[in-house]
Fold each of these.
Amino acid sequence: MFLKKNIYVLILSILSFHLYSQKDSTKVKNEKVEKNLFVQEGLYKPLAPAKAAFYSAIFPGLGQIYNKKYWKAPIVWAALAIPTYYYQTNNSEYKRFRTAFRLREAGFQDEFTLDDGSTTVSDTTLERAQKQLRENRDLSLLSGVILYVLQIVEASVNAHLLQFNTDDNLSLKPTFIMDPMLFDAPKVGLTFKYTF
């Protein structure tokens, strides 16, 4: 059993040396222009990911536009608009309940106190509402910051990946094959399909 596993590992490691995924597109040609001046030509632009991240940090979605992924910009704007909306809604409601609680503690009439002196909302409900709305507001702010950082990272990573040759002509598709004849003790096989 131990020998059989070692043989499988050895065969898979030998086969893995022959797998290549893409050509190196980061090679740069150097041409001598004058005495010691070189002009670099090639596909690799080292400042492109930094520019994309910088543009996304300045204005969300601009890095995606810089990468020519125009369809991602409205998604970024919508993703950042949702936590902004919930932050503003929860913040205004928090301030409303906070003002009512402070007025009631000071002995004044608040918006939840009727003219006859009865209250529609109790003191504990006002405290719970403040606590819940503050948590929701802070969660909205945190999710907005996380989405803002993620769109910067996405623009930078996308700019990095645009510089590599990703040819679909070479692929590896492992598949598992079940033996339908043996129901009691099923066998599982592994097939590698190479496409060039």
Amino acid sequence: MSETVEAVGTEQDKSGDEENAPTGADLLVQEGDIAGDYLERLLDLLDYDGDIDLDVEAGRAVVSIDGGDDLEKLVGNRGQVLEALQELTRLAVQQETGTRSRLMLDIAGWRAARREELRELGRTTAETVVSTGEKVRLQPMSPFERKVVHDAVAAVEGARSESEGEEPKRRVVVLPDDED
């Protein structure tokens, strides 16, 4: 006796799944939830305390971990461990959702504090460049850091910025607006 087995799942079933797939803000909330679960498991494995906060800002999921004494170890020197952990978290989210994540991770308020430092650096450097007419090359920075500096420089009339070099030594150069 032979039986014919029909394939399970039709084109109609597949299109139905697409209709139920999260989009836009729902996808960002889902990314935050997946990242939160992933990071909660990591904290448990490390036996670290921390409160995980999920949010959506400027079209990206934002996950913050605060409150634990050991959390600074997860930031590392100049945020290097934080950057690596953010990439791992993005990969975990991508594995679950099938889409590339732009999730932003902050631990112990380090990224928020660094953002303020960089805004000040960008503003004061741009003001110096405008007053002296001389370009200034800043120290190498991560993509996150360069973006914050570029945004701060753009807010100062008479100055502009560009990036030069290759990772990991890519840096921001601040120039007078009229210099090429």
Amino acid sequence: MASTSSGRQTDARDRDDEGRARNTQDGGGGRARDARDREDKGQARHTQDRDEERARDARDRDEEGRARNARPRDGLGRPLPYGSEGVARQPEGVVRTPRETVTEAQDLLDAGRPFHAHEVFEDAWKSGPEEERGLWRGLAQLAVGLTHAARGNVTGGARLLRRGAGAVTDWAASGAGRQRPYEMDLAGLAQWARGLAEEVERTAAPVDARTSRPRLRG
């Protein structure tokens, strides 16, 4: 009888062990399924976000696949609500001669559109010879500094005006630089920028982009 009782106890323990094993296996499988489900949902969201981003990117490209910003902007480059009548941006990637760059940028500055003038300088910076990139980058910074000053951004305007002044001054003093490249008065531009930075900080008020514009050729 003792042997029979011992056998029943052993069978019971075996069944308990098998039950725990099945529960453990089911629990592990459930956790694995949950992890797979979360991964699948995450991948689905990623795919949806990527598709939406590609759709937006497609809308903001022209027929030749070049990027464009569909958001209309005002004369100082500030975004306007979609559907508003904005000021046309400068076409990207235009290759101009240095003198054409100076003339076109000055025309835009005279029109009170320093943001657009900075785009012209950027084209020269990106397409011009290596030894002139510091010059055009500095001029672009001056134009952006005036843009921010006209928007009422005191800190950003003053900082970029001084940064641009330092850049054109450093370029003029470098071995590849010169004081009057393409008839521009770099010393006069640096003086204008630093004076305007002081004015912006003193008044803490937006400047008029047209009346505060620089004369590139002095």
Amino acid sequence: MHANVKRFFDIIVSILALVCFSPFFLIVFVLDLFGDNRGPLLYAQVRVGKNHKKFKILKFRSMIVDADKKLAADPELFAKYVANNYKLPSGEDPRVTKLGAFLRKTSLDEIPQFLNILSGEMTLIGPRPVVEPELKEYGNEVDLLLSVKPGAMGYWQANGRSNIGYPERCNLELYYVKNASLGFDLRILFKNIYSIFRSEGAF
């Protein structure tokens, strides 16, 4: 019953969000035609979803074109990326454009994930989807993490997002999986909205 209600809610919310934010897609598209921002509107990265099924998470592109190749080609930069919980420290990522920094700070880069939610690859509330190398952080509880759909908003995000690294992130994400309920989802939703307005842990 919980899963059916969540899916119905996901479909309604994602359709409404995509309609409301459709003008923003056009604005970002136009801005992506100029300067350092020049390039595709969307960035797709492979993440691991429910039952180990891989999918491409969608975001407004916040980096220069071929940013992943630049990261992989720089051993020092890649080592810093891994050491900082698979994200470079705020203000220290040379790949992020000025527009991208704004999109990340305001969490507007996440808007295209409503397409992932509508398609059923993600849900509104759930553990954040990870890249494959991050799975080792979950040890023998990987299958538990991947027993549910990943979410656009999660308990880890609600408690500080990028300000909270591993292994504490694992504890928060797994706590959600073990205690998931509609009431818990609503609490997480409101906490995430509050964090977004405060730009907490977003970079």
